[in-house]
UniProtKB/TrEMBL annotation:
<dbReference type="GO" id="GO:0005634">
    <property type="term" value="C:nucleus"/>
</dbReference>
<dbReference type="InterPro" id="IPR011989">
    <property type="entry name" value="ARM-like"/>
</dbReference>
<dbReference type="GO" id="GO:0008283">
    <property type="term" value="P:cell population proliferation"/>
</dbReference>
<dbReference type="InterPro" id="IPR038904">
    <property type="entry name" value="BRAT1"/>
</dbReference>
<keyword id="KW-0963">Cytoplasm</keyword>
<protein>
    <recommendedName>
        <fullName>BRCA1-associated ATM activator 1</fullName>
    </recommendedName>
</protein>
<dbReference type="GO" id="GO:0005737">
    <property type="term" value="C:cytoplasm"/>
</dbReference>
<comment type="similarity">
    <text>Belongs to the BRAT1 family.</text>
</comment>
<feature type="region of interest" description="Disordered">
    <location>
        <begin position="752"/>
        <end position="783"/>
    </location>
</feature>
<dbReference type="GO" id="GO:0006974">
    <property type="term" value="P:DNA damage response"/>
</dbReference>
<dbReference type="InterPro" id="IPR016024">
    <property type="entry name" value="ARM-type_fold"/>
</dbReference>
<feature type="compositionally biased region" description="Polar residues">
    <location>
        <begin position="752"/>
        <end position="769"/>
    </location>
</feature>
Length: 876
């Protein structure tokens, strides 16, 4: 038994006894919490998973025996818990065999009446399939037959998994397959046929032919197509399998002819005026034809002909609601749209084009055209993972043109708002689809010209209509992903007209009453700030002209929702990297003090996490005032060691990682190693970095880190008893430093107290050359004749002065520092501590913490509800 579980056994025993007695008590919450903890441990593969403790095996034996004797079926929450425990236990073959000795599972199924509960029953049986003993049990008792009577979605998955596990038991496998084949050749209900279709589809999705071929071999013939859609799915699969079997024997031309014949059959089915069936057929057809492409034709992308029908409702909407002519459409627009239409038609056969016309004629008669378009968009979203890049681009172009036509029509003919101004489900689905396609396929201006229509159409849509919250959020997300991934610098000139709308639009959304809208608007601003820094300098103007940085600063401290405040700080993390925004808007905001206040006083962890991240970014990209460094260090020490949120500690440790790197760079290190020479500001000359000189500099760094509390932070974080990620991060940072010290044989020199150590007074400023701090004596206060020349060399940005050598800024001493509040770990103590195997510390701690971090409090909470119930009854 795991020793770390022992303290909790008594509490778990009491709780399980309460479950067995099944008192009239609201147990649902306790049961859900406890079973979720056990399930999470099982899912994560934790070795010390509590469910493997013998206590649970004994409990389930006792409970099933008691319920069998009394004939009393427990209430639903206890049934659910018992099945979950039995399922988790049964996945371990040794435990399964122990429980099965007394036919416990037969008793369990009987006493809990599981055959009437499809989902719990399937959950239990599926657990048996994890090992050979469980498979033998299922084969011996024929409980799998019950699955054919169930009507839940998991039935096909279970039968498919059963067939996969028993594929070497040919006799049994054929028996199950014949049970599946029967309904296809009879007039059984559609649910039975749907099970057969679902099993075959399960294997098609995985491109696994073993079971489908057995299915085909046990069919005496292939049925004719009918009006039953599920049956037709089976027929199509059998046709494909027949073609697959003949593939090696037939000529390529015969195979292509057979494929064309099957495609024609698909297309004829698409001509149905029941467009709901068309959507289902296209959904299934994407899987089917992907399989054909992969296993038979070797000529990919047959699936394009199935995408066109799904776009038909959108084309029909255009015909039904948009004016036939628009004089404002310029020649450029006509040229690109004509190219798009020509490209689409070139992908379609004559039969496919005719089927689309038939679809269109049927759709024009449907009153619920928008609803059908929403359903087709849903199908496109579900099956997009099967698209090739060309198909994704074609869908993207279509939806962009349709949305652009809507916007242009509403602007030119305001009366049309009555027709589709309230069809927000349609617009929501389309904007979401565009987002998904850009994300999944990386669609950019290199792929299609139409990408430049997205931003103007989105802006117009938001300004013309009073959209529901979910639509507004989705449009803003599309704007965000488009700016981040799709627009090229030279094409931004074509949409400069949108810049005048962009800033004011975002400003309005930041003042929205709905927090989710404010949050996604901030996400857009964050992306704009990042792109303004790395790619599009012109976007700086968008932010500055509308005074967005100032508003974001205010939101970071004053917004009523914590997640909005956190996102606002994320924006500031990007903005401070843009010099124009920093110098003209943020430099005077005293952001370091604001972030310190958040780290020390904010109650929400997600906000403190971002504040700690801000300090890291600010340390790297901007200069803290000299007089604020002491307070900043104190705050980051507090956040690294005392904050109650583990992620705040991790982010604060990343701050110290940057501090270490900065000190090392300040001593001449470049990319993790020291160059042969560097420029010494103190000695006003280029100096050679011998091993002795490097050790001297590393000792100085250790002294500096000790003085500002960094070494104490790392030591405390490694020893942290609560948060594994904190300790792992600290070990990673410390190990890098220790490896560097070992590389240059630093260790024995730290035998006594260090001399007064200058501490950091500012941030690293890239100047293009390497600067060395004072190594021995303080600088003279009387500059000589060459002082100005030397300073010009030190501050020069011409990298040719010392080619390839990085130059951090000068560091001085911080005065008025309260050393009493810091836990000072001297360099000697630090080296002694890190002499042990740090990774071993983490391994031992992981073993100790695994799986029980919240168990004690969870058990106490659950038992408390029972104890309160007992005490309440005692009062009467």
């Amino acid at each position: 038994m795991k020793p770390n579980v022992v303290p909790y056994l008594l509490k778990m025993q009491r709780l399980l006894d309460f479950f067995t007695q099944d008192r009239e008590h609201n147990v649902a919450v306790a049961v859900e919490k406890f079973s979720s903890l056990l399930h999470r441990q099982e899912t994560e593969g934790i070795e010390s998973a509590l469910v493997l403790v013998p206590l649970f095996t004994e409990w389930i034996k006792k409970a099933v025996t008691l319920w069998s004797v009394t004939g009393a079926k427990p209430r639903a929450p206890i049934v659910c818990f018992t099945v979950r425990i039995a399922t988790m236990l049964s996945k371990n073959e040794e435990v399964f065999c122990e429980l099965n000795k007394d036919s416990l599972f037969l008793k369990l199924i009987a006493v809990l009446d599981l055959r009437e509960d499809d989902r719990s029953y399937l959950e239990l049986l599926e657990g048996f399939l994890e090992h050979e003993s469980g498979v033998e049990w299922i084969v011996a008792y024929d409980f799998w037959e019950d699955v054919f009577k169930s009507h839940c979605d998991e039935s096909a998955h279970f039968i498919a998994k059963l067939l996969e596990k028993t594929i070497d038991r040919e006799e049994f496998c054929v028996r199950v397959i014949k049970r599946l084949i029967g309904p296809v050749f009879s007039d059984c209900g559609s649910s039975s046929v749907a099970l057969s279709a679902g099993v075959l589809e399960n294997f098609l999705r995985r491109l696994d032919l073993r079971i489908p071929l057995l299915f085909y071999e046990n069919c005496q013939s292939i049925p004719e197509l009918s009006c039953d859609f599920e049956k037709n799915k089976v027929v199509y699969t059998l046709q494909m399998l027949e073609l697959y079997k003949a593939n090696d024997k037939s000529a390529s031309a015969n195979i292509d002819s057979a494929i064309d014949k099957i495609r024609a059959t698909f297309i004829s089915s698409i001509c149905s005026r029941n467009f709901e069936h068309v959507i289902e057929l296209c959904d299934f057809g994407q899987i089917y034809w992907t399989f054909v492409d992969a296993k038979i034709s070797k000529l990919p992308h047959h699936t394009v002909f199935l995408i066109i029908p799904l776009l038909s409702p959108h084309f029909t909407l255009s015909m039904k609601y948009f004016p036939k002519a628009d004089e404002d459409i310029d020649d450029l627009f006509d040229e690109y749209r004509k190219g798009y239409v020509d490209s689409m038609l070139s992908r379609m056969s004559h039969d496919s084009i005719r089927s689309c016309y038939k679809c269109r004629d049927g759709l024009l008669e449907r009153a619920e055209l928008f609803e059908l378009a929403v359903a087709s968009t849903g199908c496109l979203k579900r099956t997009r993972h099967l698209f090739c890049k060309d198909a994704a681009v074609m869908v993207f172009q279509t939806i962009v043109y349709i949305l652009r036509d809507f916007v242009r029509t509403m602007k030119k003919f305001p009366e049309t708002l009555a027709n589709f101004g309230d069809q927000f489900d349609y617009f929501l689905g389309n904007f979401e689809l565009l987002c998904l396609l850009v994300d999944d396929f990386g669609i950019t201006w290199c792929d299609i010209y139409e990408i430049i229509y997205v931003l103007p159409a989105s802006f117009d849509f938001l300004t013309m209509l009073r959209c529901p919250v979910d639509v507004t959020v989705q449009v803003l997300r599309l704007i965000d992903v488009t700016i981040a991934k799709s627009v090229a610098p030279n094409l931004t000139l074509l949409i400069d007209s949108t810049h005048n709308l962009f800033g004011p639009l975002l400003y309005v959304k930041l003042r929205d009453d709905v927090a989710e809208v404010r949050n996604v608007a901030l996400a857009v601003i964050r992306t704009v700030a990042r792109m303004a820094y790395i790619k599009f300098p012109s976007l700086q103007k968008v932010l500055m002209d509308s005074e967005l940085p100032t508003l974001v600063v205010k939101m970071s401290t004053c917004d009523g929702e914590s997640f909005v405040r956190a996102t606002a700080i994320k924006c500031l993390q990007e903005m401070i990297q843009v010099e124009e925004i920093w110098n003209n808007a943020l430099k005077t905001e005293d952001l370091s003090q604001k972030m310190r206040d958040i780290l020390l006083n904010e109650t929400e962890g997600i906000v403190r996490v971002e504040a700690a991240t801000f300090m890291c970014v600010a340390y790297e990209h901007q200069q803290f005032p000299k007089d604020s460094l002491d307070a900043i260090y104190e705050t980051m020490i507090y956040s690294s060691t005392t904050d109650l949120h583990w992620e705040v500690k991790v982010r604060a440790l990343n701050f110290w990682d940057k501090v270490i790197k900065n000190h090392l760079q300040n001593q001449g290190m470049i990319d993790g190693s020291f160059p042969n020479v560097t420029f010494s500001k103190e000695h006003r000359k280029i100096v050679t970095l011998t091993d002795s000189e490097i050790r001297k500099r590393l000792l100085k760094v250790l002294g500096q880190l000790s003085a500002i509390g960094c070494l104490g932070v790392l030591t405390a974080a490694i020893k942290d008893d609560c948060d594994m990620e904190v300790s792992k991060t600290a070990v990673k940072i410390t190990q890098k430093l220790v490896d560097l010290l070992k590389k240059y044989a630093v260790g024995g020199e730290c035998s006594g107290p260090t001399s007064p150590i200058p501490t950091e007074s500012g941030m690293s400023m890239s100047s293009g050359i390497s600067v060395d701090e004072s190594m021995d004596s303080p600088r003279s206060s009387q500059p000589d004749l060459n002082e100005e020349i030397i300073e010009q060399i030190v501050n020069a940005k011409d990298a040719s002065l010392l080619k390839g050598v990085y130059a951090p800024s000068d560091y001085g001493s911080v005065s008025n520092y309260d050393f009493q509040v810091r836990k000072i770990v001297t360099p000697t103590e630090f080296l002694q501590f890190t002499h042990q195997d740090l990774n071993n510390i983490i391994a031992e701690k992981k073993k100790w913490l695994n799986g029980i971090e919240d168990l004690g409090s969870l058990l106490d909470d659950m038992l408390k509800t029972y104890d309160e119930d007992v005490n309440s009854m005692d009062c009467y």
